[in-house]
Amino acid sequence: MQPANTLLAPSILSADFTKLAESIALAEKAGADWMHCDVMDGHFVPNITFGPFIIKAIAQCTNLVIDTHLMISDPDTYIADFIQAGSNQITVHQETCAHLHRSVQLIKSLGAKAGVSINPGTPVSTLEAILPDLDLVLLMSVNPGFGGQKFISSSFDKLRKLDEMRNAMNPEMILAVDGGVTVDNAQDLVSAGADALIAGTAFFKADNPAEAAVKIKSASR
């Protein structure tokens, strides 16, 4: 079921890793719903972040949903490790999965919710066959790899199309947006169909993260 209120998922990538527990506590206190964890391999995306050991550390610090986004070339090899470490939901990329249904089924068979993400240059039509099986679609509104990028405006059209597809094929699926999310565009994103907003820089780098969280979560249909 689509949430009544906008879900806030601070991206841990933008947090201060010398104060990881404090950063997570800050997100919890601000009313975050998920902790978003971006896993990058330096191959599918031009950056390297962290592996399951960081997920395990995060899981020891919070009861929030751990939302793990695998921006890696061979996700099936590592899905079990990330779920065992504490991930509650795993999102893989349509662009990296040769057998997307198999990847989604693997995630679900291990007890986690399954999501699929698409890059800015990937048409939403590529998700038509898999959409009924998903718990989550994550629309990338920047090219993945680095935080702090500018939102790609054409993402609004893709978001509206995904919302139409979701309503027709899988009304209970969550639609999330990641990349260039700010307090200024949060309302427009939710109006276009987003249920969950991934906020890295907009939350952790804000002068007042708690105030930023309130503004983002207050966005409504």
From TrEMBL:
Coiled coil: none
UniProt-listed GO biological process terms: pentose catabolic process; pentose-phosphate shunt
Pathway: Carbohydrate degradation
Record-listed a divalent metal cation binding positions: H36, D38, H69, D178
UniProt entry keywords in alphabetical sequence: Carbohydrate metabolism, Cobalt, Isomerase, Manganese, Metal-binding, Zinc
Details of cofactor binding: Binds 1 divalent metal cation per subunit.
Gene3D superfamilies cross-referenced by the UniProt entry: Aldolase class I
Cofactor: Zn(2+); a divalent metal cation; Mn(2+); Fe(2+)
NCBIfam families: PRK05581.1-4, rpe
Protein's job: Catalyzes the reversible epimerization of D-ribulose 5-phosphate to D-xylulose 5-phosphate.
Protein name: Ribulose-phosphate 3-epimerase
Species this chain originates from: Chlorobium phaeobacteroides (strain BS1)
Lineage: Bacteria, Pseudomonadati, Chlorobiota, Chlorobiia, Chlorobiales
